[in-house]
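Checklist before submission:
- one chain only
- standard amino acids only
- sequence pasted in full

Submission:
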Amino acid sequence: MVDFARGTPVTGSLDVAWNHGMPGRRGEREPKIQVHYYDEHTVILRQSKSVHYEAPFMFLLFGNDRALLLDTGATADPERFPLRGKVDRLVAIWLAKNPREGYELVVAHTHGHGDHVAADGQFAGRAGTTVVPKDVAAVRSFFGFGDGWPERTVTFDLGGRVLEVLGSPGHEEAAITVYDPWTGVLLTGDTVYPGRLYVSDSAAFLATIGRLVAFAATRPVTQLLGCHVEMTGRPGRDFPIGATYQPGEHALHLAPAELTAVRDAAAAVAGRRGVHRFDDFIIYNEAGPGDQLRLMGRGLAHRLRLTRLPGSVIAGGRPARTPGPARRRRTRAPATAARRGPPGPAPPGRGRTRAGPASACG
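Returned file contents:
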């Protein structure tokens, strides 16, 4: 049995060069799923941009009794995106080192948007597997929130590895955030990540970020891991939506102080719908049709340029940077925005660092 309570949080590795797509048709040569071991019981997966431009990250956490797969990516077709096969192999590898009978798998989601639940069907009929439906009622029931949603923090035991789960609506009504005491990692889904923070309910989002800030102040959070990278290596600049090649992208992980930065930024733009740029994220605060049209128009223009200039390097080809304090672009950020501290055992660096032996693709 693995002792998941002793010596926590453990030191994990984010020494990995994340696949970020390839120009032109060369992208078809990129592995469909990239696998990186944060530690021997924690796996991060990324869907290839050659399969779907969203390229979401997914997380596989092993406990003594069961594993949790958090999110299933943006593509249903197992031929194009063989997530089930990849997860089965990863589970088999873990069980070979930690043999036991009746090992279970729980498939849950950071939230219910299509790019996080598309491959749920691949796990239908898998023995010992529970797929949590994506709607808020099912999420509340499965994790045991009861009438305490979303304010209540609940626990979910993988077998000695006891996770803490927080309701996190604002981006999507069934969103959750998962804290893993074993690693100290806070899995923030699409609520906080280096990209476009789409806020559908400003009041709910502010309340969620406030709870996350308060929660992190009482836990040894090492770093934040969201589900996408959309920012370039230039402060306040994102890749166009639909981009299938993101050279020099921002690092995935963010320092815990980024929660305070997002909270202060969201409070500063509360009541002002539209697009608000900061160094490491962009808040789409209850954005209207015009904002969405501009976003989609920029993406379309990007794809047209690629058509005219096949193989060219588009958007953000500068080296990725270490996350710094949140600052508004064109407008000053709130004076209370906190500076980031060190992110823990794996200090943030360039988005493309030298990959260690723990990284694999398939």
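Reviewer check: Residues 311-322, 330-359 have pLDDT under 50 and may be disordered.
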